[in-house]
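Notes from hallway chat w/ T.B., transcribed later so I don't forget. T.B. wanted the structure written out for a chain they're using in a teaching module, and asked if we could keep both sequence and structure tokens in one place. Agreed to drop them here.
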Amino acid sequence: MKMTRKTKYLLSLTLLLMGVFLVGKVAFAVYNREVEAVSPGDMFRIWWHGALLDLRTAAIMLVVPALLVTFVKRGVRPLLIAYFCLLALAAGIVTVGDMIMYEFWEFKISSVVLSYAASPEGTTNSVSMGFILARLLLLLSFVLLILIPVVWLTPKRFEEKRSIVAPVLIVALALLPIRVGQCYHRGTLFRSHAATNPVFRFATSFLDERAYRCPSPYCADVEAAYRTGNEVTDTLLRTDRPNVLLIMMESFGGKFVEELGGVPDVAPNLSRLIPEGIFWEQYYNNSFRTDRGTVSALSGWISYPTISPMKRREMHGGLSSLARSFNRAGYQTGYMYGGPMTNMGKYQYIADMGFEALMDDTYFTPEELNCSWGAHDEVAGMKMFRTIEPIDTAAHWFMTWMTISSHEPWNVPYSRLEDERLNAFAYADHCVGELIDSLRTLPAWDNLLVIIIPDHGYLYEQTYDTGDFFHAPMLWLGGAIREPRRMSVLMNQSDIAATLLAQMRLSHDDYPWSRNVLSPDYKPFVYCNYPAGLFFKDETGETLYDLTARKGIPVGEVADSARLEKALSILRCSYSLIPNP
């Protein structure tokens, strides 16, 4: 049977798109070779495992052209060219964006990226203009890779004969029951992600939130697991009304702390302070970025793979707040960040949480705003010291300082280590150490509790294949602690609020996702997530779940179904308790 020109055209476009997807996979693997190197044999297996999903994606893209060439008699070529211009641009942005952002995030591009795209200063502050221009050139090349062959392949006119075979076949392929999880490449998380078509993943990610909102039959068990009383089995403080300084160190995960198995000599100041304070050895961040980690710490709230509560103001009224709890107890409250608090709606969140003093870049002189993000940590640390110094010792206050310097582009006025990334973290450690040493000289030290945590971790020679990314330092210091301790209790970042309030004999009943980890009711486990996965750990072991491939990933053992079910129940219950967007 002789094929019509229309059928040949659609077949050619299918082969073209399959070829483009293959080029995209190879480019993804080559560009991200520092994350994981793959051999030619691995590359073939990556393509093979993703081929069916690529075919379905190509068919979905060709539904409109198939209908046009079948049912439009005249003027179809301009319509096809216009359609493919839009398609090439959209596919190019997603494919190139996925390739570039994976280096930083190590998960497939999804609807989550739109939250960050709405605050572009986060990108422009992190990378150089040369970096941006080079990637725009890469994007243009990918768009032309689709567009030039399409223009060449598209005839000026098609034969008048109408055949529905081609569009029916295209629609059938588009409806194939091939989803992201079925292209999972057994090997590593990176190869699974390399095999997954980025265009399909991005398009379907808009359905994730709806899927996660499915009610779980175990929500009552989840709520019970997060319910702890105000009683404590261990008293850590000498007073129940200390002044509190919370220091959130940008990206400072356990990878940079030798006591947690991290790179030696990056954080010598934390190392010298750990024996003087209460060091929590099994503390885990909730999430992967500042907007999530800030809410977990300051609101005692769970994190979400697809949602940023900081950015969703409709959620703010229902969030718990340490600032409000301290305000009710008669404390003054303040939050300081050495740059503009415009990214991800931070200023609005901090204000809505009830912080009375908001100290952003306007709190600093133009000369003090000396780095890409604002004021370097040394300047901001001393500004925090000068803010605390004149406060009457009889006053009660709760302050938060978010550091800034241990972030791309790693330009800091410090040069102790050769690796620019490690050196930036060493600088943050140096600045925090200077602030602590200065605070010791004040009378306020005797009644002061300093809590040092990161907002999240950083993927330095790490992947999400284990839970190490979420493992982080937490240190309590100051004259208010009863004695130096090592704490082995398993806990999340979101548990700080209830644990601290219980130590201060203040209620945490309005914190549904924060647990008093020193309560006799506490059931130890940690639940962490990022847009492409979950991590769950309890006394029986650890479990990872890949949300992209919809599969559990063993962590040094066979995946445990009970732990996985608990993690998925928490995921579903957490979404069921938030308002619809």
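Follow-up for T.B.: The chain is about 45% helix and 10% strand. Might be a good example for the class.
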